[in-house]
Amino acid sequence: MKIEILGTGCPSCLVVEEIVKKAVKELGIKANVEHVYEIEKIIEYGVMLTPAVVINGKIKIEGKIPTIEEAKKMIKEEL
């Protein structure tokens, strides 16, 4: 599973990264979590608001910080 956090490094983006990493750990799954900082790559996804979470190439959330439970749900949907 590939999970990307899209955001230029703002505090909200960093919080989302930590929430997603915690969700992955709590679910006990293997996932490659990476943070995409480059605005060009973010634009390629068509994302207008950050932070955003992309799982296996699908935009799952955009422009908000998910709760840990929302993050787990997004991840489970793509298993």
What is the correct CATH architecture? 3-Layer(aba) Sandwich
**What's the Cα radius of gyration?**
11 Å
Q: Helix content range of the residues, please?
A: 40-55%
Global shape? globular
CATH class: Alpha Beta
Query: What percent of residues are in strands?
Result: 15-25%
CATH homologous superfamily descriptor: Glutaredoxin
Mean pLDDT: 97
Counting DSSP E segments of at least 2 residues, the number of strands comes to: 4
Detail the poorly predicted runs.
none
Domain tally: 1
Major sheet size, sense and barrel closure:
4 strands, mixed
CATH topology title: Glutaredoxin
Terminal-residue CA separation: 8 Å
Describe this structure in words.
The protein has 79 residues and is an alpha+beta fold. It has one domain (2-77): Glutaredoxin, CATH 3.40.30.10. It has helices spanning 11-27, 39-44, 68-77, and strands spanning 2-6, 32-36, 52-55, 58-62. The protein has a 4-stranded mixed sheet with strand order 2-1-3-4. Helix 1 (11-27) packs across helix 3.
Write the layout of secondary structure elements.
Elements: E1 2-6, H1 11-27, E2 32-36, H2 39-44, E3 52-55, E4 58-62, H3 68-77
Parallel strand pairs: 1-2
Antiparallel strand pairs: 1-3, 3-4
Helix pairs in contact: 1-3
Summarize the structure.
By secondary structure, the protein is an alpha+beta fold. Helices cover 42% and strands 24% of the residues.
